[in-house]
Amino acid sequence: MSIRIRTSALSALAVAALAAGTVLTAPAAGAAPKATGPAFLSASQLPPHPSSSWTADPVTGGVPQALDLCLHTEGVPAYDYRYRQFRTDLDTSAVQLTVVADTAAHAKALAKHYDDLNRTCADRIEDGAPDIEAEGRDYGTLPAEEGARVRGLHTKTSGGASDIALMSVGRDGRTVTVVQWQQMGGFQDAPVAAFKKTTTTAVNKLY
Q1: Among 111, 128, 190, 193, which one is least packed by beta carbons within 10 Å?
Q2: Looking at residues 159-167, what average pLDDT do you find?
């Protein structure tokens, strides 16, 4: 089973405070983005792949399904969501999501919410799919703008399929970014140092 499996939907209670009692729905993927917004990573700023170059898709409005494994956006306030997906010729892929909140305080709360989802992802996967073993690791914080944190996730199915993902959440002012890298393999295959550099670049490109 691929690391792109969906797990059960997370309760919206964790983000109710963000909307001051009003829960809205995030824009659907594919919605037209606004003309201006935070800058995104380029293909050359992803962790280098040993045998394939990265290709970057255009920036798109909405929320990508590629983040469904850990980050469920149902129930969060309807801010400005935009994303860019990246791919190689092989099994490695990545995605960056940016969210512009109405205040820095709401962005801080949203960043914590997304990091909490990454932190608890392994447990939620095992609870929702008994045939999958999942392990999460905390790779620490980064001193980029208002801060960022990097985490890792390894999943292994009863059939032997093994996938590894690196995930990060960072913030600058009212803007939050989420970056995810994934491929087949285990923790030993994860380019942690390069991904930390990618995350720092992503956060520094926000406004």
Answers
A1: 193
A2: 93
